[in-house]
Amino acid sequence: MAVVPVAPAWRFVWPGLALAVAPLTMLLGGARVFVVGDPFISEIPKTVAEGLSLAAATKAFGWPTFFHYINGNVAAFAVAAVLLLRRAPSQKQLLVFSGVVALGFLALLAAQVRWSFGASGPLLCLLLVVVAALVQGRSARVRGLVVLAVGGACFLPGAINRISAVRGRVALRAADQGDLQQLVYRDAAAAIRASQPSGEIVLLASPNGSTGMGYYGNFRTLGTLYWENYRGLRAAAEIFCAPTAERARELIRLHGVTHLALISEENYLAQYFFILHPKGTPEEFKKTFGYTLLSAQVLTPWLRPIPYRVPSEVKIPDLRVLLLQVVPDQTPADALWHIAIAQLTLGESANAVQSFSAAIMQSPAAQQVALCQAAGNLCYERAAHAAAVTLYRLGLTPGDHPVIAGNLAWVLATSADASVRNGAEAVVIAQRLGTQEPTALSALAAALAEAQRFPEAVAAAERALELIRGTPQHEAQVPFTARLEAYRAGKPWRQ
Question: The whole model's pTM is what?
């Protein structure tokens, strides 16, 4: 029997040193050469699901999660172990090599489930080696059966688990919350782009929100995962966790942020804070810029809320979405005005009236009447008739203004809200408008009808229709005619 010479030990020194270069560089250079070693970045994986260990993920999400990540890997290792006892030395070497590599990646998967993608390649190689060893020297029929059996053992449990989960959601007619959030991201991205139709948008949002809204809106974003975006993640954390609004403003200006998006269901605010401040307290967290924005909605003059309502299809309880545009040069009155519009969009008409009123009072006196009219019209368009009446009355305080008076009379006469209607007052206001203008006559007719004075209402409506014929506004005669017919039938008009 021939003796195989043993290589001298010194021959392994240079290969060993070559292999040690990378880990030694990371060890000695620290975060300067290996960003994953930075304390901030190293904490990020602990805050997301894919950074959990397999045991923690199974505990948090149930045994289906375990089978999702393991699939048939256990079966592959079990078969490989059996084959080691029965195969030839050459086959054993291949099984051992592929098994050791796959086992190493499986250990990484057990430490953090995000390694599942990286582990899939070595595990598939092990599976191929196992199948090759099983079918060697077998008939075609046996080879086919072996492939089916091994493939079924490895992949069928995961497929069954996935199909079962989907069928369960379909049976309940319920969408996964993650899928619903995608609808919010897409819709919110459209609202953000509408606020700035042209030009570059740089969005500050949660990591998931940055990815979703950045994709749908084609925006640049600041805080996407992972360490490849170390600077962006760090900047996002520092802005949201800024102790004051002024500090946040400085950082926002430094990083060129144009818009902010905060979503109650996944905002990452607490994670950012406790990564930056491991010894921080909940009380300190509640004083940060991001928390006060989302929870208390305390806005600064340089932030403009974007009117936005969550789509009705999204059934997530207590979901709040706050979209903001950075507007450094707006006045306090402008800020209040846009806050009012956002409140109105959310159906908070009483708060909107307060904000509109404050914005109007802070505006130059020469603009206040026009602003009262504009605010009242916005409320009327959104069917907030009580709010519209309040703002129209505010515009009439300094004196008579025909347009505002006509609008007020019309709402008092035609509102579908019985608590708003006041026919007697509407008649008094409309009578001061005169009888030479079609719109004024139409308001008077509606007021008289609400006051049950239908003959007079018919006469006023007929006069309005007569005046409008042959004028540039003749296309408006259709609604004038419809109202006239209602008054002739003894019915008041409702809008």
Answer: 0.73
